[in-house]
Amino acid sequence: MIKLQIVGNLGKDCIVKEVNGKNVINFSVAHTERFKDSTGNLKERTTWVECAYWTDRTAVAQYLKKGKTVYAEGAPEADAYMNKENQAAATLRMRVQNLQLLGGNDGTPVSNSPGITSASASSNTAISSSPANEVSVADDLPF
Predict the structure, then answer these.
(1) I need a labelling partner for 23 at 20 to 30 A (CA). Which of 34, 52, 79, 87 fits?
(2) Does the pTM exceed 0.85?
């Protein structure tokens, strides 16, 4: 399996849909890389990843708002197409398997939110789409 991992900000509020009796949360994550080019000028490059998170635990959708920082990992897909200017372009998509909320937009910890558990008020919350759809905390890892 190929795994894609991204840390970035949501570009807009998520959308929850029901498809064939199953729930999917769609959202887009942007990651901006800052670097210097060969002439020493500071450059920025933003990569967008369209995410689909298939889960029965849609309560997390209320926290997936524009600007929210998240960590997501899953299986990547790439689609090539011709854009409006008739130039080749591509879209990067991910079927999310693990999702972690990285702090609150307004400084409030996500652990105070109903339906999401956390080891402490300052820790981040991890949500896994394992077969049992369990909610786990990343800090519980034994290593």
Answers:
(1) 79
(2) no
